[in-house]
Amino acid sequence: MTSLATCDRLTVRYPGAARPALADLTLALHAGEKLAVVGESGSGKSTLARALAGLLPVGTALSGAIRWSGPPPRPGRDIGTVFQDPGASLDPLLTVGAHLVEGLRAPLPLGRAEARARAAALLARVHIPDPERALAAWPHQFSGGQAQRIAIALAIAAGPHLLVADEATSALDVLVQAEIVALLRELCRDAGMTLLFITHDIALAGTLADRVAVLHDARLVEIGPAARLLAAPREPYTRALLAAQLDLASPRLVGTRP
Amino acid sequence: MTLLDARGLAKTYPGERRIRALDDVSLSIAAGETLGLIGPSGCGKSTLARVLARLATPDAGSVRLDGLDWLALSGAGLRHARRRLQMVFQDPAAAFHPRATAGGAVADALRIHRLVPRRDRPEAAAALLRQVGLSPDLARRPVATLSGGQRQRVAIARAIAPRPRLLVLDEAVSALDASVRARVLDLLVRLQAELGLAYLFIGHDLAVVRAVSHRIAVMDAGQIIETGPAEALLSDPGSPLLRRLIAAVPALHRKDPPV
């Protein structure tokens, strides 16, 4: 398995923070895999996403290294990012078409007409109905799920080989969440894209990812194939995380009647 | 014994699209019972919560709560009766005054409902914090400096302060990490047993709703489309929506077949 990137004893400390947000983290991101990074608030999972995407704030102290197997990724081109709130990616004062045309023309040598045609194709790829009409529409005219699809189209516009999704489905209702997960799966399969999927939901991670990494208190607890890690976790913290997660077979907390 | 009985609630939001948020909604909740309410976003769950909590006015329908004609109450009568139904929201940060302390927020609820003489309020507030599993040492801490789970416990302490019969929990555990959420759910179940509280438990996570609810109601496009005992309903879902909601819950120990 070729690695796309390797974090080698990566430690990240935000300016003024007493403790590192990520401590001594070593892991490899395999080319073409879907790696889920799971953890609770403050575990460092979003910091790992930002470090790999080159989005750490100025003044952040970083030690250790991130090694890329090929040339270092070009910002805005080789790595796409999607966040929890599609509003973070979409300017309310720009049409959907303006976002995508800009997103395509900044990194790629495309004429306006060609960029517009590609923008429509991108919207079709993320299953936005009537792409031509959607190009002329404004972000607020779309539901949360549709807006997240548009944010994904924007993230993959330049054909990145890595897509970083930071809690990209957390604000969506479960039915829409399942649709977005299916879309991510489909895009990775069709484009051979690597996915770094950051989530607090270990069960969701298990349905999407090839491998799962568990973070706790800025450290890597365990990493392994998703099916193995969920069925037979090796670390007590992972077991606790799984025990706290409810599914439809979990013991109920109340009787059948009051 | 029926605690809450809502009949024919309707509410349409004005505007271009005239969304029917509630379309002839009827439901009942027994004393001490948890009714789980589930449905996709925009189905009307939160509007229903707000109508029952008298934060929004329906266009039609009636509600009896604890023997009272709930929607007919107004003025002093409503102020006096309001303590019977309290609400807990998803985001505890937004539900408190920015400078409120944990003890102050709970004492304030006691003051508003005039249940405890002034000199006894700090002690009563400390007792309520203990009851929700918080150390009374936290009483002087600003709510804003507490963790998400602690904040939600303060919100629950404040909600039970006026000794309500029914709590409306609108996505009250949805923003919490799984381990914190598990402990808050345990707390809710314990308080229900101790206080005989009824809950309307609104959530989008079917696994969570199932774990704490005696009965579940499924809502879609402003209507309650099915209701039943939690286990029976989930083992034999009648609507395509409920079947989709069930399918959308990731199973922990069974890897879904690749699509």
How would you describe the overall organization of this protein?
The complex is a heterodimer of chains A (258) and B (259). With 258 residues, chain A is an alpha/beta fold. Chain A is 35% helix and 24% strand. Chain A is built from 9 helices and 9 strands. In chain A, the strands form 2 sheets. A 6-stranded mixed sheet of chain A has the order 5-6-7-3-8-9, with helices on both faces. Chain A has a 3-stranded antiparallel sheet with strand order 2-1-4, with helices on one face. In chain A, a hairpin with an 8-residue loop joins strand 1 (3-13) and strand 2. The longest helix of chain A is centred in the last third of the chain and has 18 residues, at 174-191. Chain A is globular, with a radius of gyration of 19 Å. In chain A, 43% of the residues are buried. Chain B is α/β, with parallel strands linked by helices and 259 residues long. Helices cover 34% and strands 24% of the residues of chain B. Chain B has 9 helices and 10 strands. Mean pLDDT of chain B is 92; it is low at 254-259. The interface between A and B is large, with 43 and 47 residues.
